[in-house]
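Question: Send over one sample?
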Amino acid sequence: MSDTKRREELLKGLDAKFKAVDRDAEPFLEGLQHAKLLTYWDYIQTDVLLNLQTQRTVFPDELVFITYHQINELLFKLILWEIQQLAEMKELTGLVFQEKLSRASRYFDMLTTSFTIMKDGMDPKQYEQFRHTLTPASGFQSVQYRYIELASTELINLIDLRFRSTIDRNTPYEYAFEHMYWQAAGKDFKTGKKSILLKNFEDQYKNDLLDFMGAYNTKNIWTRFKSLTEEERQNKTLLDAMRHYDRTVNITWVMAHYNTAKFYIEGQGKTAEATGGSDWQKYMHPKYQKRIFFPELWTDKEIENWGVDA
């Protein structure tokens, strides 16, 4: 096709595009004559991105800590983007399901291996000094991670193990929220008293989380998996992908986080609290809460030993 013919085809396509929305293409074409050419730094918003790291102390390695956590949040965003597509696809096939799930798993694989950036990339003495400036903030307060959990599984699998028998599909979301496993990081269940860590988090995000619970109650990963055909649900490659995602998120990544926290919090031969003041060991270690997205895909023995050998 000649260049002239190609231009004519492109112009016809643009005309059709703008006619479909009842607009004339000519003003848009005229505007292109005056538009600036796109640059990498404008498209990626490089200057904005590189100015989002605001240190609260004078210690150089605090920059590592801030930047690393921002990278985590960007990867969480990508994971949620894949899950959202999987959740909302009208005609979902096993092949597409596996592709989206594998993408999310690769991001978590990256998150897991990246913990060496913090573990080996910060001076423990510097961290011991600047960590107190972060109080009462904590990685616990990442709402995107809570969204990932809620979008991955049935709500019952995220309830504190001690209270699961009191909750079913008819339980109000408010009651379920008050008994999520992560409440154990900042709540005395006997008195109902909550730490400032938990109060701040709920003040900021509780309503959003309740809305998200409702939205994903019928379109989380496990629910969408059950909507596939029997043949697709029995596909070994897909089942392996499901198990890999479950183990990666709830054991491998969690333990990489746990061991890094342990290295910095207790690495100097002393026991200390996390920055948010949480009972971080029992909150984080998978063997205590047995966070499992797809328990139906694991044997009773595997569930019993969940996280024990991690």
Observations:
- The chain has two domains: 3-35, 62-304.
- The mean pLDDT is 91.
